[in-house]
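W.,

You were right to be curious about this one. When I first looked at the sequence I had no strong expectations either way, so I just let the prediction run and decided to look at it fresh. Below is the sequence, 90 residues in total, followed by the output.
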Amino acid sequence: MLILPKLQSLPNSFPVEGAVRIELVEGIPIFRASRMILERIDVLLEKQQQLLLNAEEEKELDLYEEIDDYLSLVNRTVRNMYLNQHKSAL
């Protein structure tokens, strides 16, 4: 049985709608951050390279990293389930 990690919180800037988009890759749905989220992450990363982020921005960036890890896990799980299901059918 797969146990998914629990997210503790979302960044304050995380929109309730439009934060995640779904793409089909070889017929498998893949969940990705929306362009709006990617732009916010880019702003934070750029600022981090030039200056120090304040504590709130650092926490926000950490939370986005946690969300990215979570989406990666979900995507791998869905892909592996699909591949295992296909192997069983053969």
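Here's what jumped out at me. The mean pLDDT is 90. And, maybe more interesting for your project: Residues 55-89 form the longest helix (35 residues).

Coffee later to discuss?

I.
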